[in-house]
């Protein structure tokens, strides 16, 4: 007698149960313009990722942020290339390009809603500086956004670690570096070595960025 083997039928309910029982991934998101990315970004991501035991921290360049600095427009492709070079060599780090690919104004709520739909097995931790926590009440659809992500605030001198919204606070070395200051130095012909990774500095020089 010949027996025919048939594949078991996996229902939607069974898939949901498997997903519910599987270990959930813990992923940090560090969004920004990264114009350019600097050592402060890397230190922040490293400290949050290791202190919270995250599986990965994704750097997420925006396409057009709601409050873009129009004085220094740098193409998204250049910012993506600099981020890719900045995070090389650290297995904890990765890059998320959904906002760049989508284009237009980047609202965190829309992005996180999309990512949660694409990766229902993942818990996201959105990383912001302590100075930005005070602005959370002004964020687009913030009351809905806090249901999608865990906010992580990186403590900064002069800013009280407090918020009406749920925020996990993390200590990190206080590195006073800003992309604005780096652009100013580059425009003036000053050195920015040790402020940005060597690979990022090489790209800036090769692509002749921030000269005007």
From TrEMBL:
It holds the Pfam family CTP_transf_like. Keywords: ATP-binding, NAD, Nucleotide-binding, Nucleotidyltransferase, Pyridine nucleotide biosynthesis, Transferase. One of its GO terms (molecular function) is ATP binding. Pathway: Cofactor biosynthesis; NAD(+) biosynthesis; deamido-NAD(+) from nicotinate D-ribonucleotide: step 1/1. It catalyses: nicotinate beta-D-ribonucleotide + ATP + H(+) = deamido-NAD(+) + diphosphate. One of its GO terms (biological process) is NAD+ biosynthetic process. The keyword Transferase applies. Its EC number is 2.7.7.18. Catalyzes the reversible adenylation of nicotinate mononucleotide (NaMN) to nicotinic acid adenine dinucleotide (NaAD). NCBIfam families: cyt_tran_rel, nicotinate (nicotinamide) nucleotide adenylyltransferase, PRK00071.1-3, PRK00071.1-4. Belongs to the NadD family. This is Probable nicotinate-nucleotide adenylyltransferase. It comes from Lactobacillus selangorensis. The gene is nadD.
